[in-house]
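Lecture 7 notes: from sequence to structure.
We start with the chain below.
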Amino acid sequence: MPTVLITGTSSGFGLVTTVELAKRGWNVIATMRDPGRRAELDRAIATANVGKLVRVEQLDVTDPQSIDKATAGFNANGQPLDAVVHNAGVAVGGAFEDLTDAHVRHVMEVNYFGVLALTQRLLPGFRAQRRGRIVIVSSESAFAGQPANSPYCASKWAVEGWAEAIAYELEPFGIEIILIEPGAYRTNIWESSPRVLPETSAYRPLLRHLELTVDTYVAKSARDPVEVAKAIGNALDAPRPRFRTAVGPTAKFMHLARGKLPSRVVRKIFSRFFALHKVRW
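Predicted structure tokens for the same chain:
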């Protein structure tokens, strides 16, 4: 029975992916920064009757000691690990000029450096067993920039560039990199992410417009995150998974348009989508 470690499982994609993979027969090590927030996951596990296949552990991907503790049992001479799903992620909304250095660095520490640190800790075991799958929950934000979302976009562009590069290094050892790139889905990242909207901001008209527009779009059109969990499950179960899998209609469109449409055209599409022409400066 294969074993997978998933980060960021207290809610959102991580929670539903834990349940989906356990239902498919995977042993799941469901990790989260604060195990005190495990109640929602516990309820979902109980409802799906997969409690015997899920173990909840503490793991903060920005803390080297936490990473070492959570992965101590996985090495060439210990319990084998077949896959890792890098799901933990954060965002901050706001115009770049209004953001602090701490805002930007926190997003990069979790979404980019956290992925690198945990992967580096697991690679010796994957190499020794000559197999392993590294799944990274990226985003359609890796395809094109989005207004008031620059740190998050940058983190996803960075992690995808890194993934493309190390794929060459890991292929001889039977280790596969898989990028899952969702569009807009109903997760709590929309509510939990800080929004920086200073009263004195030169960008306040744009930020207020985006706040209302995005919230309305998410409420009406954001999709069920189980779709993403199933895409992750399918990628892990596939004999030869694709390197990239876009999930959801907007992500699939941007995936197809990537490298084909000029950046100016992409910005015009986004401007119309967000109705930026209605902003009154």
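Points to note: The chain is about 50% helix and 15% strand. Strands lie at 3-6, 27-32, 54-58, 83-86, 132-137, 175-182, 244-247.
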